[in-house]
Design goal:
Blueprint (H helix, E strand, L loop, with lengths): L6 E6 L5 E8 L4 H10 L6 H4 L7 E11 L7 E10 L4 E6 L10 H16 L4 H9 L4 H11 L11 H18 L2 E7 L4 H13 L3 E7 L2 E4 L2 E4 L2 E3 L3 H11 L8 H6 L6 H11 L4 E5 L3 E7 L5 E8 L2 E4 L2
Parallel strand pairs: 5-6, 6-7
Antiparallel strand pairs: 1-2, 2-8, 3-4, 4-5, 7-10, 8-9, 11-12, 12-13, 13-14
Length: 315
């Protein structure tokens, strides 16, 4: 935990003869931390979160609005929403250590965000938020996702456009399954919050819960930021890493239909038959299927999903 009085030292000069001390400096406003993360997502410490497969980030948006009930006009605002290369929604809440709410209140706040995002964000919503951040430029968003997932195996030889569509399907699937990452970011994480983070991360199977300390060091006209990820035991890290890796496609039409109730099966038999005919196509994933149609630019776009527990379509 960074404390006032902590220092780091820079060796300067060709022979390292000059030592420049940098001391911890408090953030004057929470907005400074928020802006830093939006501009430099690597400050979230992706290499510490998973040293074997460092997390890379796509910044979805800041101040993500989350309703607290179906159709509710009142909404909460999450500080930042990110995605990693394996399509894991990553919710980030920022507090300065001087803010008394960082002790315990922030935990309830974060759980509120996570529960309501899963309940009230429909399929495609995160993609819409990401596109809005880029000025509704779908091409720019597709390029960003393609670069993010360039070395990710999706269980098959997919072209770039199909890989991008598969990515967004996995984002929606992870959210529906409650698979996400919760990050508490502060210049210093107090012991009370650290213990809660460690407990939650050890006990929650589908959710990775971590703290990221981001102390600011200044001196001699220099500013340095030193991220430290806390709350992660090696056992928890390996367990979460294996769970949050992209699953291989394993669902088939036969398995899907066999898993339905007698009342639901006739509907899906007819739906799948019609959705398999031009101009549509069905793509099977790990837990269900997506219905795709060609966009004017020639790429395939998902317009509906079918899962064992139900059916979702875009508005």
């Amino acid at each position: 935990m960074a404390r006032r009085g902590d220092q780091i030292f820079l060796l300067r000069g060709a022979d390292g003869s000059d030592v420049t001390p940098l001391s911890v400096t408090a953030y004057e406003f929470e907005a400074e931390l928020q802006d830093l993360l939006a501009k430099h997502p690597s400050l979230l410490g992706g290499g510490q979160i998973d040293p074997e497969n460092p997390r890379r980030w796509l910044h979805v948006c800041g101040e993500a609005s989350i309703a607290n009930r179906m159709g509710g006009s009142r909404a909460m605002a999450l500080d930042h929403l990110f995605l990693d290369q394996d399509a894991t929604p990553t919710l980030v809440e920022i507090k300065r250590s001087a803010d008394t709410r960082i002790r315990r209140e922030v935990v309830g706040q974060m759980l509120d965000y996570a529960a309501n995002a899963q309940a009230y964000w429909p399929p495609g919503h995160i993609r819409t938020l990401a596109a809005s951040t880029l000025g509704d430029d779908e091409d720019a968003l597709s390029e960003a996702v393609a670069a993010l997932t360039e070395d990710v195996s999706w269980g098959g030889n997919l072209g770039e456009a199909d890989r991008v569509e598969q990515y967004w399907e996995r984002v929606d699937q992870r959210l529906a399954d409650g698979e996400m990452r919760l990050l508490f970011v502060a210049d210093a994480i107090p012991p009370e919050l650290r213990r809660i983070i460690e407990f939650m991360n050890a006990q929650m199977q589908r959710v990775e819960v971590l703290g990221v300390e981001l102390p600011k060091y200044t001196g001699a006209g220099i500013k340095a930021l030193v991220p430290r990820v806390i709350g992660q035991s090696e056992e928890a890290r390996r367990g979460k890493s294996s769970r949050l890796m992209p699953p291989a496609a394993s669902m088939t039409q036969e398995r899907f239909l066999d898993g339905l109730t007698p009342e639901a099966r006739p509907f899906f038999e007819v739906f799948i038959k019609h959705a398999s005919a031009a101009p549509f196509k069905i793509v099977w994933g790990s837990k269900g299927f997506s219905v795709r149609v060609r966009r004017p630019d020639g790429a395939w776009a998902s317009i509906a999903y079918g899962y064992m527990k139900g059916f979702r379509a875009f508005d």
